[in-house]
Design a protein that fits this description.
Length: about 325
Amino acid sequence: MTRFVVCAAFAFAALVGMFAPASAASLLAVCQGAAEVAFIDTDAARVEVRLKVPKAPARIALTADGLLAFVTHPDAGLVTRIDTRRHLVERVFRIGGTPFGIAVSPDGNRLYVTDWGSDKLLRIDAATGETQIEADVGSSPADVLVDSVRGRAFTADRESNAISVVDLPSFARIATVPVGKAPFALGASADGSQLYATNVQSGNVSIIDASNGSVLATIPVGKMPYGVVPTPDGKMLLVTNQQSGTVSLVEQATWQLLAELRVGAYPEAITLSADGTRAFVTNWFSDEVAIVDIPRREVVARIEVGSGPRALGLAR
């Protein structure tokens, strides 16, 4: 069984952030090159705390209450657990392998982590870091999305050009959905009826019926789409395009491209404010997080962060 270890090397860095005042809303930006997580006050558009974490952090997931964040480190085989209120690295779990994509169960008790190198989805105890069970999925699974209501998990299998469907009770793959070339990120509609997969190398997004796995539409966007998120009202889909340096706005009723907004150098992750009026985007090559006013369709702020921002999590 996998056991956790506490990395004392990060104790001092964590304590630096413990006494910082709490913000109205915290956006956590995972900076891969800097090996840190930046805590951003989204109202003031400034970095409050830079928290050091183990090397090469990649992806992040938060509990539903926003009190805990979990960060993967594929190069080191680790998952870091962070107390978001105290800005503190609580524990570092030694998972082994190459943990990459991550999701948290609604009750916060379990983590679902893709192992990029071994082509598996892991279920991990969020308190102890123990690997409870594994499922075989496709090649190089990147993102993972969990639908606890329907009892399924989905992985974006980049080198298989497909989405794996895993039954949560049995923890076995029950279906495979062919999509475009090199799927990377997954999103879902508010009711969970549709899934969205960004296909990096084919420059499009696959719209999938979650109930039967059929592909409803394939939407062309910009070059190298990496992140995807729907607006809460179900009217638009926002997609980051790395090579184009843009965010595509797609109308969900017609699946027509409404606009492309230039946001920065190699945008990757994207998430939205609770009311859906602002988008937050990591610009990987320009070391910043851009804030986009969606109704106005323009960038209204740029926040400098550590080198290589790749992923985002919002503590609502």
